Amino acid sequence: MSSADEDHVAADAGAxxxxxxxxxxxxxxxxxxxRVLHRYVQQVAAINALEPAMRAMTDTQLAExxxxxxxxxxxxxxxxxxxxxxxxPEAFATVREASRRVLGMxxxxxxxVGGMVLHEGQIAEMATGEGKTLVAVLAAYLNAxxxxxxxxxxxxxxxxxxxxxxxxxxxxxxxxxxxxxxGVHVVTVNDYLAARDAEWMxxxxxxxxxxxxxxxxxxxxxxxxxxxxxxxxxxxxQELCFNYLKDNTAQTAGELMLPDVLGxxxxxxxxxxxxxxxRNPMIISQPRGDNGHLVxxxxxxxxRLWALINxxxxxxxxxxPNQPRATVEAEVKARYxxxxxxxxxxxxxxxxxxxxxxLLAEDPAVTFRSAAREGRSPTIMDLxxxxxxxGNMAVTALKAYQYFNSGVQYIVRDGQVxxxxxSTGRVRPISRYSGGLHQAIEAKExxxxxxxxxxxASITFQVFFRFYQKLSGMTGxxxxxxxxxxxxxxxxxxxxxxxxxxxxxxMPLRLYYTEKDKLAYVVSVVESCWAAGRPVLIGTSSVxxxxxxxxxxxxxCRPEYRDIAARVQLLNAKPENVRLEAxxxxxxxxxxxxxxxxxxxGRGTDIILGGNPEGLTRMGLLRLIYxxxxx
Length: 631
Known about the structure:
Number of strands: 17
Helix content: 40-55%
Strand content: 5-15%
Shape: globular
Radius of gyration: 29 Å
């Protein structure tokens, strides 16, 4: 394309009366992306041109648009992809007007662009607060129009007439030889968001004649089947994978939940699910024989070994006060252990194996059976070759002491060890570490040691989501992983212009030599925000770190800020804090409020400057109710 042609593209885009900051982005974009943005702008103009006609319709006429679209899709069943593209302007205009009437929220032009990107099977990178939840409705509605299990289409065949989708009798199993094609799956990061969005956005879908369901982790097979039979289903990525695994290990057809063909998925927080957690396996397991007594026996020996190592570290640290503590610790542990911190693995040195053997031999509950049969004293080889794998169990127990800490990788709640998701800070109550590690942690923490289990089926997000015929996603941070998205999933990242010119300032990364210097800077920043009346959100990577920041903030701040520091809110995976999550988030935007939290990805509640009106109102009503009850 010549320079004159390039100017013409920019001029055409500008002629559509787009916002100035959109014009600037189009002018500075690479030529290929400039063409794409120009096409989106033209479609936005077409949608806007339909708005007066949509507003003139009655509610009944607007809802009947869906029947009109279905007739068109049924007539063009042999070219569904092209038919959807042709319907896009009118379908998006219909959804926008339905949302305005039902929710009181009208899609911005930027949100229309986001919906186009999702419909095309790409990743929409939208800034925080741009309304991704509402954007997903546009693409979900358009792609759910051909029908799902409520009227199962078949693969390789088509229907020529219009279809009545109003029947409430849902056939969950297709006839022999027909494949059940699924509807649109909107994938969220937790059950709360799946239920909230299905109820909230479901008002729009139901107004337009579509069915919507939500899959939760604790529902029955029948309820999951009903949810997956809807035109649009809100579900977490983990639940999708586990349901897929359950389907593949099901004994009867009545136990199957997912459709035979996975149609279209819209993944929220797509970088978290498809990149950060893409290789974490979802595993279905069955219990093995109960070996809890052996785990406890090994833990007694390992606990003594670990105590000896710690005493040696303290003694060495006292002899060399000028040497860094980390160096002393590494030197002492190297005598007994061979550590690989990056892989979270370890093995025993020769001295460590000798010491472990001695400690095990002193325990009357330990019997080295091979040595006993041969009438000899146990040797180091018996640690690894005995009928009971003492050495391997001890190495697993040592991993629990070295790499897994309460309040970081897990918490203890109601007498159970529960894994903390390191990417979200949320507890995963039904998950267990494999390979005997969870048992080792239970023994370490002094709670009931449950039977170990072995995997019967497993899958990762990276494998599962490539089963979909069409995949798209949305997030605020996808550009940095654009190459991975394209290489692994064939997805392109499209940055979406903001609705209004952005005012947020992204400051450069700050590095400090010591943690003390870093924390001192945090205190100074918070004090300046208190003085200005600005709310602050402090993100931390673990439960322990969040509590450390709270203690430092309350202990190091100047005397005039002590009262306000006492009201700092803490949000992490500990039970007493999780129960107050909605209340904490509702207050996080109040003037001068400070909230310290573990990774906020997926917490799902908007932090509104000035406070969340709905959350604050609910809190106020609860206070009045409790006060009345006590009077």
